[in-house]
Amino acid sequence: MGSDEATNDEIDNDIYKNICELSEIGDSHLKRGEYLKAIEQYHKAFDLIPEPFEDYKASTWLLTAVGDTYFLAKDYTNALHALEEAMYCPEAIGNPFIHLRLGQVLFELSNLDRARDELARAYLGGGQEIFEGENPKYYEYLKTFMRSIE
């Protein structure tokens, strides 16, 4: 999930390197469709982040990676938990990808009011492009209440 975006402010350099290494291993598993192995590595990395975890960008990308992986595995309840936790971390609010995944998860869990809000945030932050490569049903749903988009 882009560990190069994170800052290691106040995280010991050796610990931060371990976090990045575990995240990269998780990313490798994810690319091979090995979702449970990826999640395991992301959790190992997350466990190294000091408390309060909400203070660190590394928490944002690790929890997003966990949520994304659970989403891809169709485990929407666990995806929701991880993505909601990510929203308390630095630079999560306003991140189009996180809003997209959160909206998709909420849609799949039939929480359509919240899904609508999150999908709209994703669109406002990332435009139509954020929906490219995703199941078109999410963008079609968005169009039903945002009449200004095509």
Quick structural gist:
By secondary structure, the protein is an all-alpha fold.
Write up this protein.
With 150 residues, the protein is mainly alpha-helical. It has two domains: 8-93, Serine Threonine Protein Phosphatase 5, Tetratricopeptide repeat (Alpha Horseshoe), CATH 1.25.40.10; 96-150, no CATH class. The chain is built from seven helices and no strands. It has helices at 13-31, 35-47, 57-72, 76-86, 96-108, 112-126, 136-145. The radius of gyration is 16 Å and the shape is globular. The model is unreliable at 1-8 (pLDDT under 50).
List the keywords:
150 residues; mainly alpha; Serine Threonine Protein Phosphatase 5, Tetratricopeptide repeat; disordered N terminus
CATH class of the largest domain: Mainly Alpha
Q: Would you identify the CATH architecture of the largest domain?
A: Alpha Horseshoe
Tell me the Rg in angstroms: 16 Å
Helix content: 55-70%
How many distinct helices?
7
Strand content: under 5%
Main beta sheet: strand number and arrangement? none
Report how far apart the termini are: 30 Å
Give the rounded overall mean pLDDT.
93
Q: What's the number of domains? A: 2
CATH superfamily of the largest domain: Tetratricopeptide repeat domain
Identify low-pLDDT runs.
1-8
Globally, the shape reads globular
CATH topology of the largest domain: Serine Threonine Protein Phosphatase 5, Tetratricopeptide repeat
Strand-pairing-aware structural class? mainly alpha
